[in-house]
Amino acid sequence: MSEHEHEHEHDEEGYTGPATLVFDSGELAVEVDLRGHFQPIDGRFHWYGRVKADEEVTARVEGGARSALLRTPGGEARTTLTDQDPWGRYRVGGTSTPPYEIVQPATH
After folding, report:
1. Fewer CB within 10 Å, N- or C-terminus of the chain?
2. 24-71 confidence digits (pLDDT tens)
3. Three-state SS across the chain?
């Protein structure tokens, strides 16, 4: 896989930028790339993405801290950090309200 994994559906909402991971042991400033979409099959919004490689995040996850509150300027949500990729980024995700603002399409 390449760094250019932009094969997303057109109806996906997303957020790329600064965020905070809130662990039981304290907060860490991170950078995230998040995407999501409404899934009609279960009637829920599914969001997912990656936390930019960070030595402190890796140290916390390897120390057993797998769950955190992910906060962005547009919201927050509980998540689990899993699946570290070859670039050191951890996967995050969840269902229901995402940790970013969803822009509603304009109605005419």
Report:
1. C
2. 989 999 999 999 999 999 999 999 999 999 999 999 999 999 999 999
3. CCCCCCCCCCCCEEEEEEEEEEECCEEEEEEEEEEEEEECCCCEEEEEEEECCCHHHHHHHHCCCCEEEEEECCEEEEEECECCCCCCCEEEEEECCCCCCCCCCCCC
Angstrom distance (rounded) from CA 33 to CA 59 = 20
Spatial neighbors of 75 by CB under 8 A, at least 6 apart, are 97, 98, 99, 100, 101
What is the residue whose two structure tokens read 């760094």?
A: 3
**How far from each other are the two terminal CA atoms of the chain, in whole angstroms?**
40
* pLDDT, average across residues 67-87: 96
Domain residue extents for the chain: 13-87
